[in-house]
Amino acid sequence: MPPGLQLTPAGSAFRGLVTFWHSTSVASAEAGRRWPASLEPKPIDGARWAMTTESPGAGEPLALAGVILAVLAWSGSGPHDRVTWWIEVAPVLVGLVASFATYSKYRLSPLLYRLLVIHAVILMVGGHYTYARVPAGYWIQDVLDLSRNHYDRLGHFAQGFVPAILAREILIRSSPLAGSRWLAFLVVCVCLAFSALYEMIEWWTALLGGEAAESFLGTQGDVWDTQWDMFLALVGAISSQLLLVRAHDRSLSAAGIPARARAS
Questions:
Q1: Is 8 contained in some domain?
Q2: 229 three-state secondary structure
Q3: Where in 67-162 does DSSP place strands (E)?
Q4: Is the pLDDT higher at 41 or at 110?
Q5: Cβ-contact 168, 257 below 8 angstroms
Q6: Domains: count for the chain
């Protein structure tokens, strides 16, 4: 301190605090630490933090189930073709049973449940009217002057968009692919394989049902309908991963499932 300069009481207190911090830091450094163990910063539990900030409300699962059941009841009330309805809605029924059965032991992320509900609604609307007769598809056809009802195109885009997140989540949780550069590629492969399987199911249905399966096929005279279906599933799978990877990782954390936890 320069001679003749007097410290105020506040300055003296500040000087004492700095002196104490300096002596503590030196002593801690000699013991191999920068500061006492009691003052060391603790790592933040990202999953627990996300659980408190991004978790869905406690009533959301019931609300989503309610939406499914309400739309299912409407869809099954006087559908255009009952056989087609059963075929189109079968994936929803299987998924609904599987979701209830696995909810306590293998709960999915909130984002994935929401996407599955949206996909289920698309399927149930298509099952009620048949894909070639959905009113919203007719409206778009008129507005854009299209040659056919394109609601089935939306359905096949969703067939890649939503299953991509489902496949990604299962691979992250059940395989060593979390954080791997192969993850996105294999997710797309799973979605394309599923789309191809669905096209074979349509083919087998046509062989067994003959003309009665026309409503289920919904080709509307398009000779490239099968190729368009698989292409749109591919576009959906790629789009989903480009748009939702970060949101999916956050949703995994919110569910207590650390994303890329097993990354090498």
A1: no
A2: helix
A3: none
A4: 110
A5: no
A6: 2
